[in-house]
Each structure stands twice: as C-alpha cells, then as structure tokens.
Design a protein that fits this description.
Elements (H helix, E strand, L loop, with lengths): L14 E11 L2 E11 L4 E5 L6 H8 L7 E6 L2 E2 L5 H7 E4 L8 E2 H5 L8 H10 L3 H6 L7 E2 L8 H15 L3 E5 L7 H14 L4 E5 L3 H4 L4 E4 L3
Parallel strand pairs: 3-10, 3-11, 6-9, 9-10
Antiparallel strand pairs: 1-2, 1-4, 4-5, 7-8
C-alpha cells in the first residue's frame, strides 16, 4: 500500500482502463494502450485468441500487478490509491481452476466471510445448484474436503467457488474461464448460477464458450 492509501468503504462497481500498458518482462508489453469502461451493474465479456493476455487485464483490476503506464480505476479510484484490503472487499474472482482448502464444505464456502451464518451458506449453495450434491456427501456441509477438493469433481468444485463468491457479496465479479473444464449439463447449472450471481453486480467475464458470454451486455475483443 502507498503510505497515504485510503480505505474504499463503498464502491458502485465501475471499472475503467485508461490507456493501460503492462508487461511481465522489461520492454515486452503484453497490453498496449488498452482503454475501456464497464458501467456499474453491466456485464462485459473479454474475448480474444490465446495469447491476447485476457487474464492479465482481470489481474490488474485486483491489482495483482502494477501497470507500467495509464490507470486502472475501480469505483472511480485508481487501484494504486486504495488499500489492497479494501479493494479485495469489492472484487470477487471465480477462476478456471477453483482453489479449495482442506476442511469442511461449510468453511470453504464462507472462506471470505468467516462469520457468515449456516443459513447464508446454504442459501448461496441452493442459488448456484450446489446444495443437492452437498447434501449427498457423507456429512453434508460438514464433510471434510481433501487437499484442493480432490474428492469432488471439477464441476462440483466450481459450483462451490460460485457459492463462495455469493457469500463474499462483492460489487464486482471477475470470471476467468469459469466454465472451461466442465460438461454441458454442469454448464447449464452454472449458467443459472451466473445469472443469480450477477444480479446487481458488475461482471467482467473471460470466456471462449459462446454460451458463457451470450448474456453479456457487451463484448470487448483483445487482439494483437
């Protein structure tokens, strides 16, 4: 954090890239002069060929890296001017490879909000279609997951990560290829979960599957 970084207490959910240039290696930019706006409550898809560094753009929203030039703004604030803790409270991410921890299903879903009630967790699981399979586990919500959730299928792990994002209740939701490795039936469940998840939130979606992005308000293409 900067010495004078502020806490972003509220966030209306806007995202803005202003002439952003960024790279991982010196003199090798991967994003050059990229500018776009995402309005509060809007869902925007980022598409483009492999190697167009779409995930890099989403990583910059969460300030996993600092940009070289330009500005990334969340809720009207330059992400470098706010505390990383407060930025993280307003940005939730669902990744292609969901990360689950050794522990109960219940604790994994409320990972971001450890004081969330059992009712809140169950409600989130029902909203994304995860409640049914959780109830079938030996100890339901108290079932212990192996490291990285190895005793669940990838689709089940993905549904838990969606439930976790609902409990986190962030204003901005970033989905990075969240439906890439799942079958068509589970994808239908996740499409329903997505619609629920994005209600009243700003969405930035990276996807190759058309089914994932056809409900978006706009599509931004990154190329060359």
């Amino acid at each position: 954090d900067k010495p004078d970084a502020i806490d972003m207490v509220t966030c209306e959910g806007s995202i803005e890239f202003r002439a952003v240039t960024f790279g991982y290696l010196k003199n090798q930019p991967v994003l050059r002069n990229v500018s776009f706006n995402v309005a509060p409550g809007e869902t925007v898809a980022l598409v483009g060929p492999t190697g167009s560094y779409k995930p890099s753009a989403t990583a910059l929203v969460h300030r996993f890296y600092d940009i070289w030039d330009g500005a990334v703004l969340v809720g009207g604030h330059d992400v470098r001017d706010v505390t990383q803790q407060s930025l993280g409270q307003h940005v939730a991410m669902v990744l292609q490879e969901p990360f689950l921890f050794t522990g109960t299903v219940f604790d994994n879903i409320r990972y971001r909000c450890t004081d969330a009630s059992r009712e809140t967790v169950i409600e989130a699981a029902k909203a994304v279609g995860a409640h049914e399979f959780i109830e079938k586990l030996a100890d339901g919500y108290d079932s212990i997951l192996e490291q990285r959730g190895a005793n669940l299928s990838l689709g089940q792990r993905q549904l838990l990560s969606f439930a976790r994002a609902i409990v986190a209740d962030a204003k901005i939701l970033i989905l990075d290829e969240a439906t890439a490795n799942i079958d068509s039936y589970t994808e239908m469940q996740i499409q329903t979960a997505l619609a629920k998840l994005l209600e009243g939130r700003t969405g930035l979606v990276i996807a190759h599957r058309l089914a994932t992005i056809r409900g978006c308000d706009r599509i931004i293409v990154l190329q060359d």
